[in-house]
Write a structure and sequence with these properties.
Layout: H1 2-13, H2 15-34, H3 57-66, E1 70-75, H4 79-90, E2 95-98, E3 114-115, H5 119-127, H6 131-150, E4 155-164, H7 169-184, E5 193-195, H8 197-203, E6 214-223, H9 225-238, E7 242-244, E8 247-256, E9 263-272, E10 278-288, H10 294-301, E11 309-319, E12 329-332, E13 341-346, E14 349-353, E15 357-358, H11 369-382, E16 396-405, E17 420-424, E18 430-434, H12 440-455, H13 479-487, H14 491-501, H15 505-510, H16 534-542, H17 548-555, H18 558-561, H19 563-581, H20 585-602, H21 605-609, H22 622-635, E19 642-643, H23 645-654, H24 661-671, E20 679-680, H25 681-694
Parallel strand pairs: 1-2, 1-10, 2-7, 4-12, 10-18
Antiparallel strand pairs: 3-6, 4-6, 5-6, 8-9, 9-10, 11-14, 11-15, 11-16, 12-13, 13-14, 17-18, 19-20
Helix pairs in contact: 1-7, 2-7, 4-9, 4-12, 5-6, 13-14, 16-19, 19-20, 22-25
Catalytic activity: a quinone + sn-glycerol 3-phosphate = dihydroxyacetone phosphate + a quinol
Subcellular location: Mitochondrion
Organism: Alligator sinensis (Chinese alligator)
């Protein structure tokens, strides 16, 4: 059957296509010799001046309240909503955007971090002869090239390996991947190629080598999704859009059209979530770009309207960086239940996902243990048996809700296309739904085109193709060297700042604190294992960060990389933000509690703690186990299920013992078997067994000061 499937796929493609692919491969060889030919023809430059400085959130709120009427009001600050704001304002339209949470707080920050056309969508287009799927892939590949060009500091090409374990699959997958190159045309990032078994293992040494016959490598893009979303929103604000996060729509405003006698949407009644202040925002056109919450806004317009979105949950996990090469991803094209799993290096860690299951709509999705274990099992299938894939290696996990467009003929979400739709209601509400991260710009263009036509707005064509986002103008791959030389930053920190803020990295470096050390001169880290520095918290407030969760998840990505490290950084972040935003002590406590709750439920802490067991193959007598469990809980006062360096420091301070932080890190690292930055109960008991055998009791197992 498998062979028949391969033959069917090959026959469908046809001999002419194969000949064309051969020509493409010759073209690719030429390109590889003569340089990259990927090029985006920029649109006409925007005639709207760009502000040198970002307006404060307070000024943006005043603009929303005091402007008599906007041309467009966009509800939703995700990638699509922010893209709509940028598209509209650069056409010269008076633009407003409101977001009830933070920019990119929903699906846009919880993606697979890929900028891609969709290899599997192309497969569906071919196998089902679906021209709509083909057009979507073609459009996405164009948008991929555009995104890599307009934000080079936040995005880059990434080679992805497709391992092959059956000989017949080599020509089958090779033809499919070559078609992917062909559809990209001149915007192909780099030609795909075939690897021998030995070469594949050389590039991806942790790969399962049994039965491996070779591999195919193709190229897609990768980005920092939350920072990309933020860059779009900030660029729109600098062009003059009145954008405000933590501003929710209470209800839509309507008025009667004197010509038709029908009610028309003419704005929204909004509320500042942080202060409770309410106000009206008038607009000629209101755009609904709320992702999974599309139908809730549509029902504000018409209670009887049928739902058009079918939500699907996608869970991802983050594991230590040693699980994947620094610059090579992995694609599992056919998991045990037919899904596709990516295994990718990201921010010096490894991200794996995603799942695709129907879900309820919620602003706070929680990763399920069954989904985490599904991903882990699929990872085990593709990694060498020498690599022990542990549940404890999951440093963070999250769930994102995809706003898929409902297909009434489909029984499950996996067959639903990510195509987007633009709909205009009888009252004039413009809704953009569906789509995917990569195509946010073309989705925004289609939306504003529809708004201009439906509401007779005076605007020209879209100006966003080739329009550089904030941070891109003066960025270069060597910009970080200037940060090191001019400010005395660590090289790792400088590279991080350059790849996060682009040419705005100098603004962060200018406010970095002196360390008091010989080197680095400036740049105090929030946690020692990651390059995030305290100055980023101050700068993040200028980027409209209003809560600690904003800071750990979207201004920095600490919560997405290691929840334990994020937890350790919370007290310092609360102090810095409290000073910048004049928080009271009570407000600080509430922010700290909210951030801990976010980490516990939405970033995988809860699922991880529920996995703790009492045994873990530890050969201690029951009385010893109970004794060491009591010692464990002496450190773990909050019943988190693990011990951190902060817990150890607290206990040591209570018994008047002082040990420098580096030594404590070394101690915990010795016990931290899975190297996830925390000591769990099973690791603690495992270490106790070793110490009992050696008749040695280390500092962190002591029960009383006298034990020392």
């Amino acid at each position: 059957m498998a062979f028949q499937k391969a033959v069917k796929g090959t026959v469908l493609i046809g001999g002419g296509a194969i000949a064309t692919i051969f020509g493409l491969s010759q073209f690719s060889q030429y390109r590889n010799k003569h340089g990259n030919l990927v090029y985006i023809q920029a649109a006409e430059p925007a005639n709207v001046p760009m502000k040198n400085h970002l307006p404060a959130r307070e000024d943006q709120l005043l603009a929303l309240q005091n402007t008599s009427e906007f041309d467009v009001l966009i509800i939703g600050g995700g990638a699509t909503g922010s893209g709509c704001a940028l598209d509209a304002v650069t056409r010269g339209l008076k633009t407003a955007l409101v977001e009830r949470d933070d920019f990119s707080s929903g699906t846009s920050s919880r993606s697979t971090k890929l900028i891609h056309g969709g290899v599997r969508y192309l497969q569906k287009a071919i196998m089902k002869l679906d021209f709509e799927q083909y057009k979507m892939v073609k459009e996405a590949l164009h948008e991929r090239a555009n995104l890599l060009e307009i934000a080079p500091h936040l995005s880059s090409p990434l080679p992805i390996m497709l391992p092959v374990y059956k000989w017949w699959q080599l020509p089958y997958y090779w033809v499919g991947i070559k078609l992917y190159d062909l559809v990209a045309g001149s915007q192909c990032l780099k030609s795909s190629y075939v690897l021998s078994k030995s070469r594949a293992l050389e590039l991806f040494p942790m790969l399962q080598k049994d039965r491996l016959v070779g591999a195919i490598v193709y190229y897609d893009g990768q980005h920092n999704d939350a920072r990309m979303n933020l860059a779009i929103a900030l660029t729109a604000a600098r062009y003059g859009a009145a954008t405000a996060n933590y501003t929710e729509v209470v209800h839509l405003l309507k008025k009667t059209d004197p010509k038709s006698g029908k009610e028309r949407v003419c704005g929204a009644h909004c509320r500042d979530v942080l202060t409770g202040q309410e106000f009206d925002v008038k607009a000629k056109c209101v755009i609904n770009a709320t992702g999974p919450f599309t139908d809730s806004v549509r029902k504000m317009d018409d209670q009887e309207v049928a739902n058009i979105c079918q939500p699907s949950a996608g869970v991802h996990i983050v594991m230590p960086g040693y699980y994947s090469p620094d610059n090579m991803g992995l694609l599992d094209p056919a998991t045990s239940d037919g899904r596709v799993i990516f295994f990718l290096p990201w921010e010096k860690m490894t991200v794996a996902g995603t799942t695709d299951t129907p879900t309820d709509i919620t602003p706070h999705p929680i990763p399920k243990e069954e989904d985490i274990n599904f991903i882990l099992n699929e990872v085990r299938n593709y990694l060498s048996c020498d690599v022990e894939v542990r549940r404890g290696d999951v440093l963070a996990a999250w769930s994102g809700i995809r706003p898929l467009v409902t297909d009434p003929n489909s029984k499950d979400t996996q067959s639903i296309s990510r195509n987007h739709i633009v709909a205009v209601s009888d009252s004039g509400l413009v809704t953009i739904a569906g789509g995917k991260w990569t195509t946010y710009r073309s989705m925004a263009q289609d939306t504003i085109d529809a708004a201009v036509q439906a509401h007779n707005l005076m605007a020209g064509s879209s100006k966003t193709v080739g329009l550089l986002l904030q941070g891109a103008k003066d960025w270069s791959p060597t910009l970080y060297i200037r940060l090191v030389q001019d400010y005395g930053l660590e090289s790792e920190v400088a590279q991080h700042l350059a790849s996060t803020y682009g040419d705005k990295a100098f603004e962060v470096a200018k406010i970095a604190q002196v360390t008091g050390k010989r080197w680095p001169i400036v740049g105090k880290r929030l946690v020692s294992e990651f390059p995030y520095i305290e100055a980023e918290v101050i700068y993040g407030v200028k980027e409209y960060a209003c809560t600690v969760v904003d800071m750990i998840s979207r201004r920095t990505r600490l919560a997405f990389l290691n929840v334990q490290a994020a937890d350790e950084a919370l007290p310092r972040i609360v102090d810095i933000m409290g000073k910048e935003l004049n928080w009271s002590e009570q407000w600080k406590k509430e922010e700290l509690a909210a951030a801990k709750k976010f980490l516990y439920y939405e970033m995988g802490y809860k699922a991880k703690s529920e996995q703790l067991t009492d045994s873990s193959e530890i050969s201690l007598v029951p009385s010893d186990i109970e004794r060491y469990k009591k010692r464990f809980h002496m450190f773990d006062k909050e019943n988190k299920g693990f011990i951190t360096i902060l817990d150890v420091q607290r206990v040591l301070e209570s018994i008047s013992i002082q040990i420098d932080e580096n030594t404590l890190h070394d101690i915990l690292n010795e016990v931290d078997l899975n190297k996830n930055g925390q000591v769990e109960l099973d690791e603690f008991l495992q270490e106790a067994k070793v110490r009992e055998r050696k008749e040695y009791v280390p500092l962190y197992l002591c029960e009383r000061p006298g034990d020392l």
